[in-house]
Design brief:
By secondary structure, the protein is mainly alpha-helical. The chain is 76% helix and 5% strand. The N and C termini lie close together (9 Å).
Length: 113
């Protein structure tokens, strides 16, 4: 699957998730595209470092602390990306979970054979 298609699928998943969840607002397609780029970058650069630093907590919680890390990264993205607002931590946590599910479904639908 090409990078452009993955980028568009992620942006569409962001728009759908923002529409479904109260407390999340996104100003339009451009904000969703920038958010998709930013989330991709922080998932590649920052998330592995956070997972290594929080490995003992992650082991104790059987990996559930990863959801907390995802929520914190969504809050970071909302503070940096203009046009994307999240009302609080639990909303960001829900956003990350729903975004993962919708991205999975959309990637399955548009999977190239």
């Amino acid at each position: 699957m090409s990078i452009l298609l993955k980028w568009l699928i992620t942006a569409a998943a962001i728009l759908i998730t923002a529409y479904l969840l109260p407390g999340v607002s996104i100003s339009g397609l451009w904000a969703a595209l920038w958010l998709a780029v930013f989330l991709g970058i922080i998932n590649i650069v920052i998330k592995p470092i956070l997972i290594i630093f929080t490995l003992p907590i992650n082991i104790l919680t059987l990996g559930l602390f990863t959801f907390v890390i995802n929520g914190l990264l969504i809050l970071l993205a909302s503070s940096i990306i203009k046009g994307f607002e999240v009302s609080g931590f639990f909303t960001a946590l829900g956003f990350s979970i729903v975004l993962s599910a919708i991205s999975y479904v959309l990637n399955s639908l548009f999977k190239q054979k």
